[in-house]
Description:
- This protein starts with a helix and ends in a 7-residue tail after the last helix.
- It is an all-alpha fold.
- The longest helix has 72 residues, at 179-250.
- The chain has two domains: 2-110, Serine Threonine Protein Phosphatase 5, Tetratricopeptide repeat (Alpha Horseshoe); 114-250.
- Helix 4 runs antiparallel to helix 5 (85-110) and helix 5 (85-110) packs across helix 9 (179-250).
- The radius of gyration is 40 Å and the shape is rod-shaped.
- It contains nine helices and no strands.
Amino acid sequence: MKRLLCVALVTVSSFANADDVGDADRLLAARDYGKALPIYQRLAEAGNAQAQLRLGEMYWFGDGTPSDLNKAAQWFQKSAAAGNADAAASLASLKRRETHGSDITYWTTAYQGEDLVSGKFACKAPAVPAVSRTTADIKAVNTSIKDWRDCYNGFVENVNAALPPGKMIPAEVLDMMTPAEAQQAQRHLDQVYNKVIADARRDAQALTAREEAWLKETERYVSAENQRNAVAKDDAMRLQRRMADERRETYRDPYGR
């Protein structure tokens, strides 16, 4: 009888714990961390695996308490030992930080957008002269500008494909981050992308200005040359006509015919 009574009491206690976990979960969802934390703490210390998982997450995320990854790992370990698969996965993520912590540092502080401006996306602006005076030079400048424009358009497509900032962070790295680290990475990437885009826009505007100035001066030169050639041609034709007239005058028929 005592055993049955004991079982009954344990069963009632389990239901009570389940209700308490549900209450704490609702408080957590509402971000009422100050009320959720002590409930999880009490239940976790009593051996509730789900509460141990949630308590570990609160220590990991810094919800209602300073972030403490050591305490988070301890509670994940206890919950995982009780068979909680989510706790085991969270514990594995924490352990990966021990060997891959540099990946977090890279995305939160060191990344400078190398993949956006290197290799085939390293678009070096061509040298544009003040004016071109030969057909060959005009063709060469046009080709260099076209090659740069093709590269630049590819760069733009690559940047657009990488947006929004943070999209390119590997999932396994995000999985290791605390929320504070994820926010820091987002801020850092925003700054990097803004700088890369601003630099590219500035370079494109500068090249466009040089191209417009080159076109204007080259067209002016070509027009002037065409006019000089036309004048020279007219002068040559007038000279030919005058010479022809002089020849006719020289060889006039002495009989007036």
